[in-house]
Amino acid sequence: MMKKNKTLLIAIISLVIISAIIYLSPYRYLVKGIRLTYLKGEKSANYLDWKDFDLRKMENNPDKIFIIPSKLYAKTNGLDKKLLDMLTKTNSGSYIVVKNDTIVSEHYFNGITDSSQTNSFSMAKTITTLLVQKAIQDKIIASWDDKVIDYLPWLTGEFAKDVTLRHLSTMTAGLVWNESYVSPFGVTAKAYYSNDVEAVMKQVAVTKKPGENFQYQSGATQLLGFVLKKALDKTGKYKSVSEFAQVNLWNKIGAEYPAFWSLDADNGKELTYCCFDATARDFAKLGQLVLHHGKSAWGESIIDSAFLEMAQQPYKSANYGHSFWIGEVDGIKFPYFQGLKGQYIAIVKNENAVILRTGNGIDKSHGMPVFDCIKTYVSEGVKLK
């Protein structure tokens, strides 16, 4: 018995020492990462982990809710085998098709319902760009060609003085950033699980000439979010990026439910490159906003239509504009929001349609960077009536 107690005591002391070393090391964020993944039975970030983050709530306006009209059969509208197989294979949470401003198909899977908020992951990049455009329209920010260093004087690197807001939105910023979702020691994981994302970004330099080459980097959108926050601070009107989003986007599209933005710490900074947490139908309303040239369901202009048209055109990549991905399948061209685990809002203009899919899996089998799954969701979705 004495020997067992001694062994247990040694194990506990060892665990405490190891935990203390990690806590005091540059890898402190791993403690949070392990807690939110392996200890939850997951191998990586997942679309429901937002519940374990510190959050900032964006209230919907109960006096201004827009309910997208729905066909009576929308929830029973059959999905053909190809589409259903893909939705099943990719561990889907929701799938909605809106055509001619009416929901013609609405399906939920794996315990997700119409009131479940899920993580947008990188669909938040497009949302952040929309918010910056709104700030430009409101003269809070001068233009997309503003220099980032004018807002973030701590930015470092040979080309730090050259990078603009446009470079951040178009993924041409030239940062030292390896967009890896595999290594727990990489900068992407560190930014996601760190309790001080600004400290992480202060270690990221601009070492390549901006505006020349496309390289997808989540850090670019995090910097864009910091720029927006600095600009908002000067107004004295908004306390956070989330508050600006609530007033100028969430309330204006007639959100049915509140949304949340995941933070790096309690009362901390929004993870603007990811982690906007909302329900499926409310995500679909963002697609409707883009489809209708920046206007709400009530005809109010929210985002400038000329900017939206430009943002959906290729910049330095045939498949990426100003935070919009650009895809094509069966001759159908479509811009779309995209998130890590296959979160999609596809805008199919020729069909007057928006196709929304959330879930916890993605099929990258062929056709990178436009993955097979989004092609299937679009090509089969537009057939639904």
The Rg value, from CA coordinates, equals 21 Å
Overall tally of domains: 2
* CATH-scheme architecture of the largest domain: 3-Layer(aba) Sandwich
Order of strands in the sheet with the most strands?
3-2-10-9-8-7
Terminal Cα separation, in Å?
72 Å
Spans where pLDDT lies below 50 across 5 or more residues: none
Compressed to H and E, one letter per element, the order equals HHEHEEEHHHHHHEEHHEEEEH
Strand residue content = 5-15%
Quantity of strands, as a count: 10
Shape type: globular
Q: Number of helix segments?
A: 12
Mean pLDDT level: 90
> Would you tell me which CATH topology of the largest domain applies?
Beta-lactamase
Please identify which CATH superfamily of the largest domain we are dealing with: DD-peptidase/beta-lactamase superfamily
Question: Structural class of the secondary structure composition?
Answer: alpha+beta
CATH top level label of the largest domain: Alpha Beta
Roughly what percent helix? 25-40%
